[in-house]
Amino acid sequence: MALVLLLTTECQSRYAGVSSFESEVIKEFDNILTIEPTIKRLLDLKPTIEEIRSSNQVNERPVIGIFTQPYNDTSDYIMAAYVKFVEASGARAIPIVWRDSDEDILKLVPKMNGVLFPGGGTSLKNKDGSLTEYSRKGELVLNKVKELNDQGIYYPILAICLGFQEVSQIEAPYVDTLETYYFDADDISNNVTLKSTISESKLFNEMPQHLITAIEQENITYNHHHDGVLPSAWNNHAELRDAYHLLGVSYDEKDIEYVAFVESKNYPIWGLQFHPEKNIFIWKPDLHVPHSPTAIELSQFLSNFFIREARKNFNQFDSDQDAFDHMIEHIAVDLTTAAAQDIYVFDINNHS
Predict the structure, then answer these.
(1) pLDDT for 237-295, tens place per residue?
(2) Active site residues
(3) Are 93 and 66 a contacting pair, CB within 8 Å?
(4) Residue-range domain boundaries for the chain
(5) Any idea which architecture 63-329 has in CATH?
(6) Which ranges of the chain would DSSP assign to H, the alpha helix?
(7) Which has the least CB within 10 A, 115, 120, 228, 285?
(8) DSSP states along 237-250
């Protein structure tokens, strides 16, 4: 009887205002033969994605997939700063190994709550503009995330530096989308010239005004790249121009303009040419990474924002053990003297 009352209360709250609700429930439960299927039907009711978004429900155990990069012929790596970046806001990190099979990658993505495409130095396009195998695997992930969002599962992507370039090349696989070895923006800190489109940006609508001012007036975004996307190329390709808000641009040492900040119009996808993870976690003394209070606060805001978005879905692994077996903690850390400092390196033929 207690279960019946509980289910009735649950349904009343869900179907408030539906006429003759109580009489319909009484009719259902009057017939003993219909109790079992009725209970099953009521228990199968689940909140819609819109109900979750408008409620205070959040995933308290978010998991972020970080796309790996080739280290050598037999190993992949992830810079540890990216792992710390998501962990700092309460998420756990799992590698998406780009050399895994398409099937394995497509099985893994729906179990996680967000994807981070990190910076790095691998090749993204062939001479004709077509995607390299690395970018093709990234395309698998990007399209799967879009598919999940189309199904009503809110699923964010944050793409940083090379990751942003990769998303751009995937969306518009042309020769002129991505300029390679073109920009002089290696180890410099810039401001970002913001566009009027920030008024339509979810991220900027949530960013405190003093940080927006700081982005425009202070050199707090750290850049470490020679490749990038020209605003003219961005605007020339409808796949980019019509699908994303171009939120801001920066200038390299030769005063050449490049795309610095974008946000998808239709999906929870954000792209940054700069490195927010380095402000907090990279301390190599010969690099010019800004560590001012506002630079740190910007990085913290972007980390918190991304993980807050990832908390909006409840994807999960088949079991706690299944999730644990995939965690990045199983991978050895290599302490290097390179710009990346500590990195997770693992044998591609021997990972969970």
Answers:
(1) 999 999 999 999 999 999 999 999 999 999 999 999 999 999 999 999 899 999 999 99
(2) 161, 275
(3) yes
(4) 63-329
(5) 3-Layer(aba) Sandwich (3.40)
(6) 2-14, 21-30, 35-43, 49-54, 80-87, 102-108, 133-150, 162-171, 202-206, 209-217, 231-236, 238-241, 276-281, 293-310, 320-326
(7) 285
(8) -HHHHTTEEEEEEE
